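BACKBONE STRUCTURE TOKENS:
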Amino acid sequence: MMSKLEFLYDFGSPNAYLVHKVVPGVEKRLGSSVIYSPILLGGVFKSTGNVSPAISLAGIKNKGEYQGLETERFVKKYGLGSSYVANPHFPVNTLLMMRIAASVQGEDLYVPFIECCFKSMWEEAKKMDDPEIVAEALQAAGLPAGELIALAGEPDNKQKLIDLTGQAVARGVFGAPSFFVGSELFFGKDKLRDAEEEFVSQNS
């Protein structure tokens, strides 16, 4: 059975956005689709004792600046241009978006929904923890905003996101973006190339 490259993401992660932007090139090189798996970073952090870079980098001289340099290098390496912008509302509570993502995973709306949310967060810098702004963004993308937001409130869909997040932690995940190829875990956008190499190795 052919191994898949799985991408575990949360819309609140700018590094997950950057990975999302380069996924088409990854899929072309590998000749295989990348599997997007939603997780709730807040739940991952709570379960693992991890914290966001906004907290972990605070007060450490030069480390935050280096992280910015690393992002600039990634953007340049993959030719992403100037589409990425810092969201002034960061950190954004992504619970609503991630519940919707979990509820439509594998359905026709899944891919355009992912594109809309990443674009709204990291290209248009919208406050995507405001349900009204989420609805406006979805409508502008031609998506059924009312239907999607209603899905987020259904108990089964709430539980699905909890389960996906718990399963990810059980597999070793502590943040996003994370990748799996089979049982092999890779963390961080800079490990995407390693994940690609593992995919080739497992499927050769």
In short: The first helix runs from residue 14 to 30. The chain has ten helices and four strands. The CA atoms of residues 83 and 123 lie 6 Å apart. The chain has a mean pLDDT of 95.
